[in-house]
Amino acid sequence: MPPTPIRLAVAGAQGRMGQAVLKAIEARDGVCLQSAFGRPGPSQHELSGVDVVIDFTSPEGSADLSALCADHGGPALVLGATGFTPAQDAKIAAAAEAIAIVRSGNFSLGVNVLLGLVGQAARALPAQTYDIEIAETHHRRKVDAPSGTALMLGRAAADARGLTLEGAAIPAREGFVGPRPVGGIGFSVVRGGGIVGEHSVLFAAEDEILTLSHSARDRGLFARGAVEAALWVATQSPGLYDMQDVLGFPPA
Ligand SMILES: NC(=O)c1ccc[n+]([C@@H]2O[C@H](COP(=O)([O-])OP(=O)(O)OC[C@H]3O[C@@H](n4cnc5c(N)ncnc54)[C@H](OP(=O)(O)O)[C@@H]3O)[C@@H](O)[C@H]2O)c1
After folding, report:
1. Burial of 62 (0-12, 13-18, 19+ CB in 10 A)
2. Cα of 64 from ligand 1 centre, angstroms
3. What's this model's pTM, rounded to 2 decimal places?
């Protein structure tokens, strides 16, 4: 059991999310900032005495940090980057055998509630009749697409229908693509300006449309969720967790 306050470090501290996390730490009782890192990431020596690192760098940065922490038995991690390759996913899963890691493409309470609602709707509305389309909009500097959140929403829908996202996903369309495959989950992406993050999931039948949507207005929202995840993971056994675990939501 780590002492109170929980001692946090921030990786990617000069980035947009890193800056928001620093503010969230300052505003939250029960945590304190031990250190903040830009490039290059921290050495193990610089992490001594840290309970949890909150990392919003990049898939490469998060995978490397996971291996470093796992090799030394800690600290625990909260990982927020999106756009991981299968090899990077595997590196993080291997690290989670030695340390506790919370990883989520979205730390907002609203999106984590939305995941459950999407699963419920996908289960209730038959694939033969209701086509699922996921649309997301983000700021011009975002480098991965579709967003990590859009993929989480797609996975929730696919799981609820007994499908795999890899099998059901219809990526961006262009040209003569033919009719829409039954049971497919379509994705579309918009990038522009400073938009923090918009997601909508459409269930479209011939005679009705259900839309479930979420709009993030400030990235402080994600930062506060990441700090809550850090408080939670500080007392967990090694393993790979997500925000649904932190919030205590039942499996979808
Ligand atoms: N999970 C969520 O709720 C959530 C919410 C918002 C964003 N995100 C994700 O969080 C990530 C960061 O977003 P952001 O908008 O904060 O990006 P950003 O402004 O570009 O910040 C990323 C920071 O990490 C640094 N960095 C990148 N790769 C690194 C590495 N290998 N080692 C050390 N430092 C590294 C960058 O340094 P340089 O500038 O030198 O490259 C930059 O300071 C993205 O993947 C984004 O999709 C997740």
Report:
1. buried
2. 14
3. 0.95
